[in-house]
Each structure stands twice: as structure tokens, then as C-alpha cells.
Amino acid sequence: MFNSNHNYKKKYNIDYSNTIGGSASQEIKYILLDGTSSAGKSSICDDYNKKGYVCLKGDNVYNNKEFWKLKSNEYNKLPNEYMDEEQNKIFYLNTDGNFMLKEAIKNEKAIIDWISCESIIESFNQNKIKLFTILVYTGIPFLARNMIARKKDDYRRKFVFKQYANRYTKSNDASKTIDSVNREKFKEILLANFKMEFKDEKELIDFCNDIFQKMNITDDNDHGIMIKENIKYDYLLITNDKSKEDIIMELDKIII
């Protein structure tokens, strides 16, 4: 089911020639790591921090008072009415996107570890600053293994699978298939390791079905999956069965 010839590079960004971001052939100065929680982004960020990149992690930013001050100011500007999709995008562009852009360009080189990346990508694009986006992919069994190792009160233990379903969907095109999933096997993983996250088995099964429904899968057969069209990235990094050393070696060939 997995396509070993998948093209991991996907050029989506604007033309950066003759802009302050430089050309695509120049050194990669700003890197964005997209992917679910527990996909391995933090380990990559820490490694490149040792190579001269300032590491900007979402967990640290969420403890930054200036970040929440900006959030509050932008929130107070909102009209007293329901927020539509466009207003929501603008809000996150003016907060998450612009804040992370300003934090990044304070440094010669920076690597950003974030979850919801659309606003950051848009902020860099609008300012014509080159951002190299790496989508870090980790399959469901490996995500489950990583989440099992976390504290039982970590809110991300269950939410990580929702993040997964937001990025990937059923594939009917072998050339775009990056992995395979099975709903029954996912249910077995939940039953064996995540019972404490649910009030009863029905809630667990409903959660399992909902996750796969979001990926357009409604049966218990094996299905190939691909990246959803709205997910923007320059390089796909698949971490399944790879050691940390293998992952870093792969990225070094692209970045350094």
C-alpha cells in the first residue's frame, strides 16, 4: 500500500527571487516543523538548536506573556458577533502568524515547532520571507507508542489522533499514498492503551469511528492514506521505523 517512490518534495511557496527572503538556492534560514504532537518535532528542533538554529517551540511560546497580550488585543478588536472562517484566519494570522514571524527574524536562523501552521506560512509568504516547511509524518501505531509514554494527564494523549485526521485522508492514488491505516487495528490500540480517556466502550468506539470518518474511511479494511490538499509543505519526512540519527541525517542532506 505504501508508495516507496513518493515525491517527498512539494514546491508550494511563492517566487522568492529578488525579495528579502532570498532565492531558493540560498541557505535555508527559517524552518517550520509541521505535524501532530509526538511526531518527533521537538527532537529535531533540539538537534538543530545545536547547529545554530534558534528553536522556537509552541509550548514555550504559550508561556510568553507578550504572546497572550497580543492575543488579547486582537481579540478585543473583534466585532461582537459569530466569527466566520475568514475572520478566524485573519485573527490567527495577526496573532500566531505574525508573532512567530517576528520571533524568527530576530535571529539569523530559526526553526519553529508548531501544530497549526497555516497562519505562520501565510505570514512569511505575505512578507516574502523564505520559510522551508517540513511535514513530519508519524503513523498511528508510532503515535500511540509515543503517547503511551506521556503522562496519563497529558491532554494530547487523545487529541493527537484528531490532529492526525486533520492532516491525512483516504487515498485512491498510489502515487500519493504515504502509509496505510486500519480502523479495527486503531480500535484495538485504543482498547489496549487508552481506556482511561473514555467513560465507556461506546464512547471509545464512537471516537474511533469519528477519527476515521474524518479521513473518509467508514469500514475496517486496510486503506492507503495521503496528505490533505490544504496542507502546505516543502518536504515530507516520514519517521516510521527510523532512528533519530537516520532522521537527522536525512534532513541534513536537505537543509545543510
CATH H-level homologous superfamily name? P-loop containing nucleotide triphosphate hydrolases
Structural category: alpha/beta
The chain-level mean pLDDT equals: 87
Q: What count of helical segments does DSSP give?
A: 10
Characterize the overall form: globular
Low-confidence stretches: 11-25
Number of strands: 8
Largest sheet: 5 strands, parallel
Q: What is the CATH topology assignment?
A: Rossmann fold
Helix and strand run: EHEHHHEHEHHEEHHEEH
Task: Give the assembly state of these chains.
Answer: single chain
Major sheet strand order: 2-3-1-4-8
- Provide the CATH top-level class: Alpha Beta
The level of helicity is 40-55%
C-alpha termini separation: 32 Å
Beta content comes to 5-15%
Total domain modules: 1
**What gyration radius follows from the Cα positions, in whole Å?**
19 Å
Task: Please characterize this protein's 3D structure.
The chain is of the alpha/beta class and 256 residues long. It has one domain: P-loop containing nucleotide triphosphate hydrolases (Rossmann fold). It has helices at residues 41-49, 58-61, 65-76, 85-104, 118-126, 140-148, 156-167, 183-193, 201-214, 244-255; strands at residues 30-34, 54-57, 110-113, 132-137, 168-170, 179-182, 222-227, 235-238. It has a 5-stranded parallel sheet with strand order 2-3-1-4-8, sandwiched between helices. Residues 11-25 have low confidence and may be disordered.
